[in-house]
Amino acid sequence: MQYDRTDARILEIVQKNNRLTSETIGDLAGLSATACQRRLKRLRSERIIEADVSIVSPKAVGRPVQMLVLVTLERERSDIIDKFKKAIRSSTEVVNGYYVTGDADFVLYVTARTMEDYEQFTRRFFYENSDIKGFKTMVIMDRVKAGFAIPIEALEEA
């Protein structure tokens, strides 16, 4: 997966606003709209751009309770890890999930309508799973920053 300075500029632009037209992105990156479209298509096909998303306010859609949950598995075996990753992917309550090093095995970002709903989720998702040793919940009091923008550096051109 290679990208050049022009691709890096396109990535910076679309991370800030992916609703811009190819013509506008091209103008900002010094390209024609057609050349910009070709580059965007390649960046997507090579999975440098993984998705085009909108960041939605959890409160605005009735899910104001947000938590970070540290999960520790009973054993670290590849089949157990893979099974839990699958459970994370299939859960609508889990917005983001990360397999991590340190004191926990996974960190999850979870939303709920109420604390009662979160309790029901914990019973179903954690307590009924014998592979989970334990979990710790941190309730988010204020979302200070939300985004997916990655700092982009142009690769050195040969």
Automatic annotation (TrEMBL):
Residues 3-64 form the HTH asnC-type domain. One of its GO terms (molecular function) is sequence-specific DNA binding. It holds the Pfam family HTH_AsnC-type. This is ArsR family transcriptional regulator. GO terms for biological process: response to amino acid. One of its GO terms (cellular component) is cytosol. Keywords: DNA-binding, Transcription, Transcription regulation.
